[in-house]
Amino acid sequence: MKTFEERHAAWLDGRLDEAERAIFERELAGQQQIDPATERAELDRLKLALRQHLARTRMPNPDFFNHRLLDRIETDRHATAPRATSTGTPAAGWFQSIFVRLTLAGTMALLLGVATYRGLISPQLEERPETAYLTQVLDAKSPAPEVSASSFNANAREEQAAVLWLDGMAHVPESYAAADENLDPDAAP
Amino acid sequence: MQSGPPSGAESDDLELVRRSQGGDTRAFDELVTKYRTRIYAMVYQMVRNEQDAWDLAQDGFFKAWKSLDKFRFQSSFYTWLYRIVTNVSIDWLRKRTLRPEGEFDDTIARTDIEPTADVTPKGEVSPQRQMERAELRDRLDAAIAKLSPEHRAVVLLKEVEGLQYHEIADAVGCSIGTVMSRLFYARKKLQTLLKDLHENV
Questions:
Q1: Most B-contacting residue of A8, A39, A65, A78 (CB-CB within 10 A), to test interface
Q2: What ipTM does the predicted assembly reach?
């Protein structure tokens, strides 16, 4: 179903068939309270007036219009041409330029990082003695009051030992005895 | 009254467009020469200012040149060009209405319009008749200026340029139904604004 506005345009253009035109004109006269003949006459006059008075507009300086437009086109061409010839299209050139720059910057940063590690950080790690922290005895207590316990760490890397010194102890139970090689036979109990 | 270009002219246009797409500015120059007056007239009726119309017509043709690679030969060059120019004009009018605007200046470029063309030869019109026509033209200008940019474009493309509905729809980027609807309301508004003229003519 066409809208009233569409049927109005078709009616004015004479595109409605006889039956459609009769229905539309009845609708126009009834619902819209518009006399079809008056409506058509007014709109025909409006169309004629618009065409007669507005259609003929003289363009000022028509040749200069072309000249200026072509000049503008040439200027635009020259502005875009260098970029297009150097690296393909301007968009591709821009992308390639950014890509190459990013790649170079990334490679340089990577090389600098490796050099810094090799030159400064790695030697320090190699020379640093192994810490005795993991074998450190933090606390040494003896449940027997006559026995005092103390400890010290062997800091030399090759010793890798923590020494527990028990003073006043008659003997060490066998189940607590350490391996023989770690005991000093000359040490006083 | 001109309507759409005939098929022969259309095929000439398409050949010129093909050459223009290949970078031939002389071919594009021919297209500009062919359509500049109608395009300018259309824009002038939209914006009612000589300098603005000239500049907007320039912008429209320049935009058309830049967009030539997007022309797919699915419509006539003429309709495609109208679409670009109409959009340029409507955009300009929309931006302009965002700024404070004075009353319509009915003294603008009165000399650029040939009111008696196609009516009677110059010199045979009495001063009284000339005055009446000038008054009618001013009233028409003022009435059209009160339409929205979209309604103005549709009524000018239909009544002045004589385009078909599908060409107008293509040019303004809407459906044929919307074109007819806009045309109805634009005509009604003009009819109301010029009611007393109708009664006196």
A1: A65
A2: 0.72
